[in-house]
Amino acid sequence: VYDLKLYQEEPKGKTELPTIQRKEILLFFKFYDPVKQTVEFVGRLFAHLNTKIYDLRSNMCEMANLAPNEEVVAYEEIKFDPNPMIELIDKRISLENGQLEDGDIIVFQKLISEKDSQSLPYPTVPEFLDYVRNRQSVHFRKLESPKEDHCVLEMSKQDTYDEVTNRLAVHLGLDDPKKLRITSHNFYSQMPKPQPLKYRSVERLQDMLLPYTQTCDIQYYEVLDIPLPDLEQLKTLKVSFHTNKAEEVSVQNIRLPKDSVVQDVLNELKTLVTLDADNGSGDLRMMEVFYHKIYKEFPLQEKIENINDQYWTVRAEEIPKEEALVKEGTSRIIHVYHFTKEHAHNLVCCLVAETIGCSYGA
Question: What sign for the dihedral angle of Cα 47, 48, 53, 57?
Answer without folding.
Answer: negative
